[in-house]
Amino acid sequence: MLQALASPRSGGLLALAVAIALLPLVLSNKYFYDIVILVYLNAIVCVGLNLLIGYAGQISLGHAGFFGAGAYGSAILASRYGWPPLAAMLATTCAVALLAFVVGRPILRLKGHYLAMATLGMGIIVFMVITTEDKYTGGPDGISVVPLSIGGFVLQGERLWYWVVGALLLLAVWLAQNLIDSPAGRALRALHSSEVGAEVVGINAAEHKLMVFVISAVFASVAGSLAAHYSGFITPGKAAFLHSIELVTMVVFGGMASTFGAVVGAAVLTTLPQLLAVFEDYEMMVFGAVMMGTMIFMPRGVVPSLARLFRPRRKPAVSAAERSS
To answer: φ and ψ at 199, to 5 degrees?
Structure first.
């Protein structure tokens, strides 16, 4: 059992659970809870996006569209049509999964910057629909969202939301780790290394790319729905291109092909702007300098670079002549 806990997968999941359990001890007010909940929501999206970018090698610049679709789908069904919020979340998640399936089939045939442009276009379409269909979405002014309720129990208060979102982040990481260690996960890594080589050994590249695209969209949709019900109000900015870039940056910064790197990237890049507020007019300059320095000295991302730095070095093999001397 101790050997299992010492593995990167189980040990990392345990460390994350301990961090989530102990963090409330240093959160002194609602503002800090808001920031940490936002970190967890971004981390859920990044864990799914990392499966697509880090493991399958497929770039997406439109995942904020799935986040926004999840947020607005739940908001419209629950607030305008009176659906139970949990049912609205489930229906929206299924709709986003279907959207990702329909959109993913043609665009995932593309590669490189062509795929990036296609996903960017998809995200822009979702953003424009949310912005222009003000009859349903409220347009640029946004829309109010009813609180999330399960049965007769209403989830209110930042402390309760902290535990709910923290538990869902643990679930997302656990699901991602299980997928990575499954035959499907090994097929994704093969696709990343060489799509042609993977197809030669019998891997259906189109099927696996579409699968991970839908899974990453579902992660984003669930996080978007949770964000909408937690904040009680949403605007189209959550589906904007800039939010997509922020999510991709978090994945790259933390370390691609590292589930815990996605969590760390979301944590650092969500909280760093708050910490740099003391620099006032120079905040963005310092933020850019930090990111440039990290990528220069840690090109693999924060977590893989630190793991490589602290990994015990193997002793060089001793030849038979040296042993006999």
So the answer is: -70, -30
Taking a C-beta distance cutoff of 8 angstroms, is the pair 62, 188 a contact? no
Sequence-distant (≥ 6) Cβ neighbours of residue 299 within 8 angstroms:
305
Tens-place pLDDT, residues 177-228: 999 999 998 988 888 888 888 888 888 888 999 999 999 999 999 999 999 9
**Amino acid letter, residue 246:** E
Smallest CA-to-CA distance from 229 within 70, 123, 48 is with 70
Alpha-carbon gap, residue 259 to 297, rounded angstroms: 21
What is the DSSP code string of 31-73?
HHHHHHHHHHHHHHHHHHHHIIIIIT----S-HHHHHHHHHHH
Q: Tell me the Cα Rg of the chain.
A: 21
Token duo for residue 73: 């789908």
Nearest to 273 by CA among 264, 286, 254: 286
Q: Which of 70, 43, 52 is nearest to 211 (CA)?
A: 52
Rounded Cα gap, residues 297 and 239, in angstroms: 32
Closest among 219, 230, 232 to 266, alpha carbons compared: 219
pLDDT in tens, 93-148: 999 999 999 999 999 988 888 998 999 999 999 999 999 998 899 999 999 999 99
Residues 6+ apart with CB under 8 A from 154: 147, 148
